[in-house]
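Cross-check.
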Amino acid sequence: MADLTHLDERGRARMVDVSGKADTARSARAGARVRMEPSTLDKILDGSLPKGDVLSVARTAAIMAAKQTSNLIPLCHPLPIASVEIEFSKAGDGLLEIEADVRLTAKTGAEMEALTAVSIAGLTVYDMCKAVDRAMSVTDVRLLEKSGGKSGHYVREPDV
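Predicted model, tokenized:
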């Protein structure tokens, strides 16, 4: 169980002790996709949905989620987030791409904060659009890039 840092020698869950680590600059970028009817995406982009500006609300929800990650995922450390940026783009007919970029200086990385941000952004899009498209799906939640810390720089290979 030595490779699983969130488990002790007896297999019990534990929060990893990072007290001996130095604070370093860290960043993480994550992505998610929301698949929907093309007409739903058109309504999002032209602002014609009854609930209002979907992307603005989803952006705000994503930022709030990144800041609350340690309250949502039991073994995550609370982190002093310096920046959260959320971008949305049309990635095809009926496909909305979401990206989050989280930056901080701390003893541990921002991967979970970025992943939480895109997940909640996607769920917020779903919530705001479900009246017109219940068949939507939030998919492909993934880490795209991270830097800082002992494990160094990681960049995900492009999707095929």
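The domain at 24-149 is CATH 3.30.70.640 (Alpha-Beta Plaits). Helices lie at 38-46, 54-67, 69-72, 111-129. Passed to J.P. for a second look.
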